[in-house]
Amino acid sequence: MTLIDIATSSGATGEGTAYLDAATGQVRVRPGAITTADIGTLAGAAVGALGLVWLVYERIMPWSGALGFWLCWYVMFLVFYWGIARTQWEARHVREKLAAAMFTGAGVFVLVVLVDLIAYVGWRGEKAIGHGNFLTTDMQKTGPLDGLNSGGILHAMIGSLEQLGLATLFAVPLGIAAAVFMSEIGGRLARPVRTVVTAMTALPSIVAGLFVLGSVILTLGYDRSGFAASLALTVMMMPIVTRAAEVVIRIVPNTLREASYALGGSQWRTVWNVVLPTARSGLTTAVLLGMARAVGETSPVLLTAGFSSGKNSNPFSGQQVSLPLYVWNYVRYPQENMKIRAFGGALVLMAIVMILFVAARMAGGRRPGELSRRRRRQMARDRVRIAATHPARPQAPAVTPAPTAAAIIHPEPEPAS
Amino acid sequence: MTTADAGTELADDLFGSPPQGSGPGAAPAPADDTPMKIIPGVSRGDRVFRIAFRGAGLSVFAIMGLIALFLITRGAQALHATGWSFLTEQRWQTATHRFGVGAVLPDGIIIAVIALVIAVPVALSAALWISEYAPSGLRRTLISLIDLMAAVPSIVYGLWGLIFLTPRIIGFERWAATHLGGVLPFLKVRNGEVSASYSQSGFIAGVVVALMIIPIVCSLSREVFSQAPTGEREGAYALGATRWGMVRTVVLPFGKGGMIGAVMLGFGRAMGETIAVALIISPVFAITWHPLQADSNSISSLIALRYGESDKLSLSALMAAGLVLFTITLLVNMVASAIIARSRSGAATNE
User: Fold this and answer.
1) C-alpha distances in Å from residue B220, one per residue of A174, A354, B215, B249, B256
2) Are the Cβ atoms of B155 and A349 closer than 8 angstroms?
3) Where is the composition biased (Low complexity) (chain A) (predicted)?
4) Model confidence at A99, in pLDDT bands (50, 70, 90)?
């Protein structure tokens, strides 16, 4: 058996296109090009399968439901595609086409699920958001039977933001410090710390909640509060920040560190003034991704925050509801309006997650050390200012044999361009 | 690796081994023409910095240790009351001291296995599509979208599964139970004519959990696939391989360890998933051999649905259940990390 499928590149396989290049007079072959036969085969299989499945599924068999329909269509499409391809191409080429179709199908399926998830929550939640009171009132005076023009999620948004803020305050310095330890200080302990951090990222969220419930609430005797919830969120968020931060700190070029040491900088100075600023955009991404994960965590908050239907803006005393908890609580009411409120809460939660996520992607778009446009402009301005305040540089001695080493290392600033 | 260490090593390489003693006897005589020894000193500021940051690094041991400690101490009462039967007892009646994870643990594993059966082929295919087949201009966007899918809160998945998916998937469940139930007995459903027999089933929970772990498995294995060495890919193409031939002979063998690790991490995540499962299933304390049928359970949803109980023994029993879950996920993840680290692709990505 040969390990590798050999594709014959003769025209009979139908792969690619061959055309005569007028300029050189040579026949050029483009093996990867998409031909009319490819598109025709694909479209024919898709339409043919659609017709057959529609006939059988909707007209002949007593079946219904979009899910089963598209499942049948996909299977039929693959069969048709194989059949049509088999009539024109040889087996290896057919396998290649079929594999591509299957992988693309899986990828498209995942994207469809994601779009459906967001669109469905948006569609159902829009009914609640449409009422102006939804974002500005709490549930204090709203019963299960009240219309959507009463009640809202103000208290849950306050709780979510406060708990997230506290968790960020605890988790980010700790997480980045642990990442700096692993990549900058190192030593024998760095490897076990990395292993434990990896294990912590996979910690079931309910266990984090159970831990805070068992320690802060049951052992130390504090009441359920937003603060306890933020501690549970810290346990979830810290390893995410650490892992992401370690990756970006590690790709800071070593030459920058060495330059700092060569200038006499201590290790602390190097980390604080060179490594961390260089990795700033990546660190921002790490923090924002950690926040996006933490704000949506439900089970740690469920066990530790308690529930309140009114506004409680003090995270340190009294039970405090947050958005995921709001959704969890109201979706289980039988009343339709309560379910719509739950979807409204979920929509706001999704919006927060997506804002954090997009911000993370935008912050992470730069390579380490690459300056933002604003910083570049600022440096250009500085250069102009320096050139203006020191117009006449002291003239170098008339006879300068060759540039000295110092001049190579510290070249004179260029005039503003 | 630290630069300070590198400096020391460099000094060692250049000037021989570091001085063994600092006494005056160890110092070379001044007349000898030996190079000066460089011993990089550590300033006081640096020492404080190292101690502080080492403390931050070691805090992860403290956190994990405290989690284990509190779960053990708070769960000790329940474990003491039941002994080893905690692992085998199926009922959950704390008042009569008859409780254990004998049913909820297997049920949770069944849900996780259903999730894996659905998620693994889809996630690996999607990962291959993104890393090998998708247009390269689209690749970054697709990776971001998969990451976004991983960031969608579990409560949103639960909501979607409960209200959108459940009514739409019951038809499929009923079809599978009636037509395939004869061949595969575990698909049978009692009272199969009523659609209420199918809602709140472990299968629906498994489908939703599958959707939640697809992005995790997909992004981990995509990362491994994209690390497959270019030389070997081009070698395969140069021998005339089609793209699928190249994937089958270069990318998949290279990514095998990473793929196994990703699947195990997905399993650990599926075992620990709480909110979506707790929203969808209706709890039952028996092993569900028929996952299409209503009622199922898992350790995490048991905890989420019963944490409000006030008596000490019930809470202690939940802590003990949490301890079991904690131990299992920890073991699964350790094994997964070890597999990833040992594989060829893992060695390339880990350090």
Assistant:
1) 25, 21, 8, 20, 12
2) yes
3) 391-410
4) very high
Of A235, A257, A331, the CB nearest to B159: A331
Of A118-132, A208-222, B26-40, the range with the lowest mean pLDDT is B26-40
B139 to A34, A118, B131, B136: CA distances (angstroms):
19, 21, 7, 5
Please judge whether B148 and A357 are an interchain contact, meaning their C-beta atoms are less than 8 angstroms apart.
yes
- Which residue of chain A is at minimal alpha-carbon distance from B156? A346
Kindly determine whether residue A331 and residue B162, on different chains, have CB atoms separated by under 8 Å.
Answer: yes
Residue A112 distance to chain B (closest CA, Å): 11
Q: Tell me which chain A residues have a C-beta less than 8 angstroms from the C-beta of B48.
A: 268
CA distances from B165 to A72, A394, B155 (A): 18, 78, 14
Q: Look at residue B258 and tell me whether its pLDDT is greater than 90.
A: no
What chain A holds in terms of domains, given with CATH numbers, is: 36-121 (no CATH), 154-368 (1.10.3720.10)
SS (HEC) of chain A: CCCCCECCCCHHHCCCEEEEECCCCEEEEECCCCCHHHHHHHHHHHHHHHHHHHHHHHHHCCCCCHHHHHHHHHHHHHHHHHHHHHHHCCHHHHHHHHHHHHHHHHHHHHHHHHHHHHHHHHHHHHHHHCCHHHHCCCCCCCCCCCCCCCCCCHHHHHHHHHHHHHHHHHHHHHHHHHHHHHHHHCCCCHHHHHHHHHHHHCCCHHHHHHHHHHHHHHHCCCCCCHHHHHHHHHHHHHHHHHHHHHHHHHCCCHHHHHHHHHCCCCHHHHHHHHHHHHCHHHHHHHHHHHHHHHHHCCHHHHHHCCCCCCCCCCCCCCCCCCHHHHHHHHCCCCCHHHHHHHHHHHHHHHHHHHHHHHHHHHHCCCCCCCCCHHHHHHHHHHHHHHHHHCCCCCCCCCCCCCCCHHHHHCCCCCCCC
Contact between A346 and B273 using a beta-carbon 8 Å cutoff: no
Indicate the range of A114-123, B18-27, B55-64, B146-155 predicted with least confidence: B18-27
Of A111, A202, A218, the CB nearest to B145: A111
Give tens-digit pLDDT for B155-178.
Answer: 999 999 999 998 888 888 888 888
Residues B270-318: tens digit of each pLDDT = 998 889 999 998 888 888 888 888 888 899 999 988 888 878 888 999 9
- Nearest-by-CA chain B residue for A113: B211
Within 103-142 of A, beta carbons closer than 8 Å to B belong to 103-107, 109-111, 113-114, 116-118, 120-121, 124
Share of chain A above pLDDT 90, in %: 35
Instruction: Tell me the pLDDT band of A265, cut-offs 50, 70 and 90.
Output: confident
Q: Residues A301-351: pLDDT tens digits?
A: 999 988 888 888 888 888 899 999 999 999 988 888 889 999 999 999 999
With an 8 Å Cβ cutoff, is A261 touching chain B?
Answer: yes
CATH number of B101-350: 1.10.3720.10
Q: Give chain A positions within 8 Å (CB) of B2.
A: 184-187
Average pLDDT over residues A77-95: 89
Q: Would you say how long chain A is, in residues?
A: 417
Which among B125, B268, B303 is the nearest to A210, CB-wise?
Answer: B303
* pLDDT reported for residue A393: 57
**pLDDT in the model for residue A236:** 93
Task: Sort out which chain A residues have CB atoms less than 8 A from B247's CB and list them.
Answer: 99
Phi/psi class of residue A170: alpha, beta or left (left: φ > 0; alpha: ψ in -120 to 50)? alpha
